[in-house]
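W.,

You were right to be curious about this one. When I first looked at the sequence I had no strong expectations either way, so I just let the prediction run and decided to look at it fresh. Below is the sequence, 332 residues in total, followed by the output.
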Amino acid sequence: MKSIAYYLIFFIFLLVIVLPAAIVRSCSGFLPEKLDEESQMVKPRELTVSLYVTSKKRIEKIPLEEYVKGVVAAEMPASFKIEALKAQAVAARTYVYKRMRSKGGTGCSLHPEADVCDDPTHCQAWISTGQMLKKWGIFAFYHYYSKISQAVKSTSGMVILYQGEPIDPLFHSTSGGKTENSEDVWGNFVPYLRSVTSPGEESSPKFIAVKQLPVSEVVSKIRQKWPDISIDPQNPEGQWEVVERSEGGRIKKMRIGNRIVSGTEIRELFQLNSTNFKWERDKDKIKFTTIGYGHGVGLSQYGANAMAEEGASFIDILKHYYTGVEIKKMDA
């Protein structure tokens, strides 16, 4: 009996300690590079993306569908429902397809020889398989990579069209319950970027956020932004007033002292999560409470996942967040 127990302990030791360590060492040594090499092998007639990789300061040619995997992995939590990941994949493919120079697109304005870059503030975020491994860890990597690959493969070639043309598929993390009209954020009317309800986003870690800033810092930032403003440095918030709200419920315009400013300007000035905010005085600080995260236009990622949890398909999701669109296979 003792010998059986010893063998059992030894087996458990191998299974729990030695084997995982060996896997981590081997995979961390060659897995990401191998996957990257295989994924970047271009097949005849396969569409490729000219991607400017910021960390390497160079352009890389990547097969379109492999590029989409990297965008989905970077832009949306891999733990989301598969239909939400599919919706993100189609949006990511549409974004780059519209900009591909081989298809008559304008390319990346920051890097003229590239179709897109991996800077999320300018184009779309993108990560390599090696970066995915670091992000998720060795054990989660296989599950998440397989899941994202399935989402991309099952929507292969599909793009979002409005009146026969690829759209600009804007998306954001969390709308806070309702998305925004494009003109309420940037001033230009886009027919497929209309305000729609987006329930079920409460699971987002940034659904509600609180940020406190010293009154002196608030006053300093305001005066730096608008040097000619008239404001009480002891009680600045007493001279604040919401003038206009958007259809999505966010602050479109507000009065600060003797000036009318946009909610977007205040969000950027104080680095708030969204323009859906309120404020209150708390001793020597001003407390901002925001609802939602991001500009609020287009697809809400947490809203998409909530729809998927309720049984919606990726097409249902995309047609909800982008008004009047069609989902079709693109021309090769």
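Here's what jumped out at me. The first strand starts at residue 48 and ends at 53. And, maybe more interesting for your project: The chain is about 40% helix and 20% strand.

Coffee later to discuss?

I.
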